[in-house]
Amino acid sequence: MDLGRARALIIAVGCLAAGTGCASDGYLVVVRLSEEVPRADVYRIEVAIVSSCERQTASDVAGVVTRVDVTADGTVGELGAVAHGSYGLYARGISRACRIIAYGCVPIELEAGGEGALEVTMGPVSSPLCGGSETCTDSVCSPL
Q1: How would you class 117 by CB atoms within 10 Å of its CB: exposed for 0-12, middle for 13-18, buried for 19 or more?
Q2: What are phi and psi of 91, to 5 degrees?
Q3: Domain extent at residue 108
């Protein structure tokens, strides 16, 4: 998958199911990049189900229920089973140089046995991913 050319990315075609299992087809998660995001700079995308979008920022994600990374080579994992209820669908795009360059979070409602598409659009931001005592290698921060 070429993250630099994609307008919409299907993140989890497998199971994001409300309840204890994935008896239904579950939910399809779609991440969109706004026109203002320099697509060629997006190297990795983090997608998470969070407790809510209220206190989320591009540089500080809290209340993570489950998360998955989409890498430049198109590797995608499943978000898995999540209890039914109200959550936030959080996504951020990260450059190879460990800059957060896109971010979005939308409230979602998951129903037991539910299915359908969940979409979040990432708008442009600019924030460092790594702290002062970390170094960056291919969009991942590591201790010095």
Answers
A1: exposed
A2: -145, 145
A3: 8-143
In a 3-state reduction of DSSP, which class is residue 32?
strand
User: Would you say residue 1 lies in a domain?
Assistant: no
Strand segments, DSSP code E, in the chain are 8-12, 16-18, 27-33, 44-50, 64-70, 80-82, 85-94, 99-110, 116-128, 134-137, 140-143
In a domain, 3, yes or no: no
Q: Could you give the number of structural domains in the chain?
A: 1
How is residue 91 written in tokens? Answer: 């996504």
Q: What is the pLDDT of residues 51-99, one digit of tens each?
A: 999 989 999 899 999 888 887 666 676 777 788 899 999 999 999 999 9
CATH code assigned at 95: 2.60.40
Give SS3 for 130.
Answer: coil
Diameter of the chain measured on Cα atoms: 45
pLDDT digits (tens, 9 = 90+) for 10-62: 554 344 545 545 545 677 888 888 888 888 889 999 999 999 999 899 998 99
What are the backbone dihedrals phi and psi of residue 40, each rounded to the nearest 5 degrees, phi first? -65, -20
The helix (H) or strand (E) run that includes residue 19 is: none
Record the tokens describing residue 64, joined without a space. 């993570």
